[in-house]
Every structure is written in C-alpha cells, then in structure tokens.
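User: Okay, second chain of the day. Same drill as before: sequence in, structure tokens out.
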Amino acid sequence: MTIRLNQYVKKRTGVGLGDSDSLQNMLSRSLGASTFGNFWRYWNPIWSYYLSLYVMRPLSKWLPQWLAILMTFAVSGALHDLAVTLIKWHLVFFFTPWFSVMGVAVLVTSKLRFNYAGFSWAIRATFNLAIIVACYLLTTLIDEVFVQAYR
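Assistant: Same drill. Structure tokens below.
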C-alpha cells in the first residue's frame, strides 16, 4: 500500500501539506537529525516522496538496497542538473556527482554507525551541514581533476 503525499509530509514534518509550520519543521528536523541518513529522511519531503515512489521503490525490487540508494541520489542530482541546464541554457553537470557523493556519505556513515543523537541540536546540525559541505568540496575537487585531465 502506498502512503499518500499528505500523509508522508505529515509523517516527516509533523504537520500537513501546506501548513505554515511545514518549512520550519522540515529544517529543524532535518538539520537536527541524529544521522546523515536521517537528515535525508526529513529533507524536502515532497521531493523525497516522489523519489521514493518512482525511483527508490522500483530500483529496490531489482538492485541491492545500497545501490538503489546510490542510484536514487544520482537521479535526484540529474534532475537538479536538468533544471539548472534549462534555466541557464547551457549544460550543467555538477549536481549528479555531488548528490552521488552525498549518497556514498549516507552509505558510509550508516555502515560506520555514525550517530550523533547524544549531542545538542546545534551540534547535530553542524555535523549534517559539515558532511554536506565536505561532499560539495570533494565534488569540486573531483570536478577540477577531471577538467584538468581533459584539457
């Protein structure tokens, strides 16, 4: 049985779709999550709902869970690349690798059982933001290496 979007959003934010507290709750819950994987469970529930329904679930039927997670992050990044490409009217290919690196970070931190539940909200938020920034910096480094290699 598939959960409806409004139910999914309420489960993730504590309030229904369109509620004025929805953004605040999403930010508080995602940034204050006790693991990097949980950060993504709370981040942007509308987007997550559709990724889960149309990407993660179908892939999970055919692929190992870890690969389905990684592919879901890559698809999300590709859709972000497509959106920016359409806005800028030139090819952008940054979000796919960045989101893929974040997917790897989810898998690695999960495997290592990296959990910061015992810390204050501010420290948890710092951990989550630091992982995102580290993934961004790693992606820019990888991008630079590829640009230099193909010049």
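Helices lie at 5-13, 22-31, 36-42, 45-62, 65-88, 95-111, 121-149.

User: Thanks, on to the next one.
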